[in-house]
Amino acid sequence: MSLRLPAADESVLARRAQIIADLSAIVPGEGVISREREMRPYESDGVTAYKQMPLVVVLPETTAQVCRILKYCHDTGVRVVPRGAGTSLSGGALPLADGVLLAMGKFNRILDVDFANRCVVVQPGVTNLGITKAVEHEGFYYAPDPSSQIACTIGGNVGENSGGVHCLKYGLTTNNVLGVELVLITGEVVRLGGKHLDAGGLDLLAAVVGSEGLLGVVTEVTVRILKKPDVARAVLVGFPTSEDAGDCVARIIGAGIIPAAIEMMDRDAIAAAEAFVNVGYPLDVEALLIVELDGPEAECVHLLEEVRTIAAACRASTLRVSASEEERLGFWAGRKAAFPAVGRLSPDYLCMDGTIPRKQLPLVLSRMRDMSAQHGLRVANVFHAGDGNLHPLILYDAALPGEMEKAETFGSDILRLCVEVGGVLTGEHGVGVEKRDLMPTMFNEVDLAQQQRLKCAFDDQGLLNPGKVFPVLRRCAELGRMHVGGGALPFPDLPRF
């Protein structure tokens, strides 16, 4: 396994008993977990290939406790890793041997439902689906819907900027979060945004959403809720090749049609999902698209015919439109169960998360098939085709020597290909540790240094979630140094103060 984490600070390890005692005074009762057996469930997140036991686990219940914990860690030089439900698929919540794992699961209350302003205020431990459940009786819902929405929490969604099948039309978490309460590493509380749509000045809220726990700990979130559309219809379209399906996606978007969702699965994923939920997916096709159209009924009827015409031009072999709400939900049940269903095909798999321009879908799918043969590992494709967010599932057996390393190499090759064709390393899972060492593929030294300067503005000692996102750990003071090349200062004509 190629994973590297920051070297543990021996002085912190030597103070473990004192740190546990001090934290127990801040969070009394059962708020501190320090026995190895009891900490074992926290040793990894959704990427179970990577494991590390934390120094100690703390479960605060109030913002005041979070403030005291972070201030204590800042004053004593102890690292902190924030954690939501642990469903991250990039190793973003992986603990550190000398770090406090700050688990936010007890922050699980809905604080305010404001239908007049179409927003909800929640604590970060509320599940994604829990928000929709709280407002659906009035015909509202929360749009971002990751496949793990039954378990993943809104705080984790904010950390990773999660998406879901409907993010094509309704946006990712960043497009649906209006405000947060954030505790800095110094213990200070700041509020960014609120129930209003926008605020003047720097858009710090956008910096926090997707910051992967590097800037602060979110203790409250204000999200936008939407009215459910009048009509929603889902279409299953089967194709003889993945390239035909990819071409159909590009043509639908190119025609000016913005469906609520366009999802794609290849043959292996289709078979696994169908065996898991039995919703009637066609098993004689190489690729399957699920296209959902929503809005006024007349608009949906018109767009359905447009999609039929485009699909036929792309050699679609089957097309089935949902005849009821129950059937529509059944189509999505298979897609949302695809990740666990693929567990039937292999003992282990790595889920990748690159994003590409839609027009590159046929090329990238073809290249991935060649890579699969080259590395000797199967790959099942399940992804958000409408916005080019790929989720190739690389199948391997960790019990076989060398297979884990082969899978990691295969995954790195896929992500490099995404960048090569004009895409990015991640669409919604975050960088974490999984993609950390690939960041120079997409960013140069200047880019990375500028990103780290933002980190330093929030966390001057680099105590929050170190070892994630940035391939090289640097102290903030190192980023501010003047570099001299060839005996000359840069830009010598500028005045120096």
From TrEMBL:
Superkingdom of origin organism: Bacteria
One Pfam family hit: FAD-oxidase_C
Signal peptide span: none
Q: Which GO terms describe its molecular function?
A: FAD binding; oxidoreductase activity
Q: Which UniProt keywords apply?
A: FAD, Flavoprotein, Oxidoreductase
- Where in the numbering of this chain does the FAD-binding PCMH-type domain appear? 50-228
Its needed co-factors are:
FAD
Q: Please list the coiled coil stretches.
A: none
Q: What is this protein called?
A: Glycolate oxidase
